[in-house]
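Sharing a chain and its predicted structure for anyone who wants a worked example. Both blocks are below, sequence first, tokens second.
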Amino acid sequence: PFRDSKLTFLLKNSLGGNARTTLLINVSSRWKDLEETITALKFGARARAIKNVVKVNRKLSAEELERLLSKLKQEHDALRTH
């Protein structure tokens, strides 16, 4: 859902991951600003539609890290044999 734009690049750490983001859209009631207002509202609608999966950050013990490493090595070996 992300597009290549300067604004998205600047917000990439806030739009994805474990961040709560508030996006304020500035609109104008002047006719000469109509196109820019519509563009801003469309961007806001697209940004609002983005759904992220929250993942709890936690520190693993040395034992848990060793088990995870062992599991990943097994998966890696299994994929290499296919």
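Comments welcome. The two ends are 33 Å apart (CA to CA).
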